[in-house]
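Homework help board

Subject: predicted structure for assignment chain

Our instructor gave us this sequence and asked us to write out the predicted structure in token form, then describe one feature. I got the tokens but I'm not sure how to describe them. Can anyone check?
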Amino acid sequence: QVHLVESGGGLVQAGGSLRLSCKTSLFALDEYAVAWFRQAPGKEREGVSCLSRTGTTTKYADSVKGRFTGSRDNADYTVYLQMNALQPEDTALYYCASSRAAYCSSSWYELDWYRYWGQGTQVTVSS
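My token output:
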């Protein structure tokens, strides 16, 4: 059973923007921290960002700092990832994942920290 559903991916030129959404109707997403991960072909899944339950704490991978911004609408059980200044190296399948806690730990980029995952949305950036 898929617990989270991502949307908003697509094909964009370098320098463009996309906004990803992560939503669920199966549990109270507003109680947990939510992270975004991505996986490019032939590479391991890597953490992109983590957003605490309240949205007041965010963590980002160095490769996306200053370009990506996480936010959430807890009333709608939706988490967003605004991606600006996209580059070809951002091309990947993007996943959202719900944490086991309300906060983003110092190990937020480790897969084991997360309980539920989506199936991913493809982001392709052309040069």
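Reply (TA_rk): Your tokens look well-formed. For the description, you could write something like this. The chain has a mean pLDDT of 95. That's the kind of observation they're looking for.
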